[in-house]
Design goal:
CATH class: Alpha Beta
Largest sheet: 8 strands, mixed
CATH architecture: Alpha-Beta Barrel
Order of helices and strands: EEEEEEHEEEHEEHHHEHEHEHEHHHEEE
CATH superfamily: Metal-dependent hydrolases
CATH topology: TIM Barrel
Number of helices: 11
């Protein structure tokens, strides 16, 4: 890969929020050097004077259905819920993500360089999700981490999908019982497997084993406070090491409990009406309450329920409600990287990290600013000059 030098960029310090003018040297798809001044050398193939444009780490959305609910296709492009069965741990998001979904272009043009995408929430157990870069044509070449968790869902969605047809789950107790049954059967399967008593592999149990071994987190769709607490109860019962609450509409009502249990929240989507009872307590300042309490919060679009390009807008709205600039910045960069366990590669502008950058023609937390250049793995994949 060729090297590229970006000069005179304005960078936010991820800890202090201060803005510093820096040069950035990119080599072999990685950030090599960040310094006040980098000399132009013969081995630098391309130099761009950013003229004091603002540079963010590539923006990250840690909960979407990008490519698995395709835009502009109708029902044929909706692959997020295998509603033939409420318990489908063996489904893999990468088998349904279409990188040619037009929404990937929206992500790139908005400075979003990585997302988590995967199954929806109609099933009690939906399957495995993946972290992917947002530029490419072959999903296998875009994967950053796979799998990055097993999806389970509490509350209204599974009940309204199956319970209305008098099929389990009809109640919240039914939801939890199905999850518990799957995990217990997987434990039994693991014992038999260790004793070489398995005649043939079981795809469903095999998909749960990494969760019970602590290799991947449990990603729990939960809006109501009682559902969040149930998710914690299940995680503790089966000694699951990491639990992520996705959505967390009422998470602020139990914020101290979440801090005690060290549970992180992928909060949102925010730009939707309260069309379900579970959303009655949702308000824009909830992210502020969670952050002030010490809960690690990432903001999400849940694309396409909020369009992927609205992620920065959501961060701006949270900042308007009082979220500090640093916390708003972390909520769309560092925190989602940490929640996705990819913070050794993305989420910061630091030597050795992937060269994923979003470059804005104004302060990114000004709604009037526009993403000017997107760089993924050291390659310019979008520039507004050529649009």
């Amino acid at each position: 890969m060729q090297s590229m030098l970006l000069t005179n960029g304005l960078l936010f310090d991820i800890e202090s929020g201060k803005i510093q003018k820096k040069d950035i040297l990119i080599s072999n798809g990685k950030l090599k050097t960040i310094s006040d001044r980098i000399s132009i050398e013969d081995n630098i193939h391309k130099t761009i004077d950013l003229q004091e444009k603002y540079v963010l780490p590539g923006i990250i959305d840690c909960h979407t259905h990008l490519g698995i609910i395709e835009e502009g296709t109708g029902k044929i492009g909706v692959d997020n819920n295998e509603t033939s069965d409420p318990v489908t741990p063996h489904l893999r998001g990468i088998d349904g993500i279409n990188p040619l979904d037009i929404a990937f272009k929206d992500a790139v043009s908005s400075g979003i360089t990585a997302v988590m995408s995967g199954p929806g929430s109609n099933n009690v157990v939906g399957g495995q999700s993946a972290v992917v870069k947002t530029f490419g044509k072959i999903i296998d070449q875009m994967i950053l981490k796979n799998p990055i968790g097993l999806k389970v869902s509490f509350g209204e969605n599974p009940i309204s999908t199956y319970g209305v047809n008098s099929k389990s789950p009809v109640t919240r107790m039914g939801i939890t019982a199905l999850i518990r049954e799957l995990f217990m059967k997987t434990q039994d399967y693991m014992v038999r497997k260790e004793k070489n008593k398995i005649k043939e592999r079981n795809m469903r149990f095999e998909a749960v084993i990494p969760l019970l071994q602590g290799k991947i987190p449990l990603r729990a769709h939960a809006h109501r406070a009682d559902d969040i607490i149930t998710a914690i109860r299940i995680a503790e019962e089966f000694h699951i090491k990491k639990l992520i609450i996705e959505h967390g509409t009422e998470a602020h009502l139990i914020k101290d409990y979440l801090v005690e249990k060290k549970v992180h929240v992928a909060y949102g989507p925010m730009l939707t009406p309260r069309i379900k009872m579970e959303l009655r307590q949702r308000h824009y300042s909830a992210a502020l309450e969670l952050a002030e309490a010490g809960v690690k919060v990432a903001l999400i679009t849940d694309h396409p329920y909020n369009s992927i390009e609205q992620l920065r807008t959501i961060a701006i709205l949270a900042k308007v409600e009082g979220l500090s600039l640093i916390d708003a910045l972390k909520a769309i960069t560092l925190h989602p990287a940490e929640i996705l366990e990819c913070d050794d590669r993305i989420g910061r502008i630091a030597p050795g990290f992937d060269a994923d950058l979003a470059i804005f023609n104004g302060n990114p937390f000004d709604i009037n600013a526009k993403n000017h250049i997107t760089i993924i793995d050291g390659r310019i994949v979008f520039t507004r000059d050529k649009k």
